[in-house]
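Reviewer 2 asked us to include a model.

Predict the structure of this chain.
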Amino acid sequence: MKTNDAVTRIMNGASWEEFCDALKRAGDVILRDGSPQDPFDRAEGFRYLSRLTRVALESYIEFADPLAPVLRRPAHETVKIGADNPDNYYQSAAISGAHEYRLWGTRGTVHYLGFGTYAGNYGSSARSGQTGYLEGRDLRTEADGSFEIRVSCRQQPGNWLRMEPDTSSLIVRQTFQDRVGERIAELHIGRLGISAPPDPLTPEAIDRGFAAASAYVAGTAALFADWAEGFARRGVNQLHQLDPAVAGAAHGDPNIRYFHGYWELPPGQALVIETTPPPCEYWNFQLNNHWMESLDYRYHRIAVNHHGAVYRPDGSVRIVVAHEDPGVDNWLDTAGHRRGTMCWRWIRAAAHPRPSTRVVELTDLSIRP
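Predicted model (structure tokens):
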């Protein structure tokens, strides 16, 4: 947009009005026929839009300048997007393939660490997908655990994270197997060749930021509502593998294979998920609401991973989803929900078996698995 157009739109309030109108239209996703038609899920849906708005304003207004990147948390305990992993500490920064960056810090002891660069975003019409990836186990670190990564389109010696000309974001996934005993990597980022403070705010930046933020809210809400409805159409209380190309376009991790599904349980019944995990670096299973937000893991046990699960003597695992504790191993709490989505992840697994699922009466569950 031309500078004069942006100035006019800021001065006459058009930027703000269009931002507000777009947010209002995003509510249509919550109200559409495929969305749950009850007050509880609808209330969560509108809260979800408020959370997306909060993170969108941080992404496209407060921390949108690739000349002065800031690592922030785009998903956490009160911002949840696309089956966010409760074991993850997510970080993101705005970057640009037109520049080069230095990413540095200390490795910590977190179980899994991955750095990805990406083009596009939810709600954008531009190309969306990964443009580079560096895994923590491939990092060259010093004796004290410190390291430095060059982030650029040009290949660099040592630790290098690739970008492409249209790269627009960095996403860091730090995955715990044990939150109590592990420390996250301490990370910092800066653009190379700059020592001056960022330029003052411009009308263009605000005009552009409002448009991008509202597109993100509407696009994210629609994308994952489409996914949830698609999972339900494939069969309730079943898990199916997500096409890796679809996962990649949604900024997934290339080392992960995802199995998603839709669950729905009346009182007195339980969903049983069973599999024999192959050799892998990590797996987890989690419950989400219809909007693909992880359920509130601060107060409820809604996920289990390879480290915390109780296994059978033959190496298999049984997970039980129920509204109340049936007194069995690996029980997951629905946290007041009667329906939602669910996700199983495998990281660097030797195979990707589809977990079996079945619905049983609570009275049919034995105390032992």
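The first helix runs from residue 3 to 11. The longest strand covers residues 167-175. We have added this to the supplementary material.
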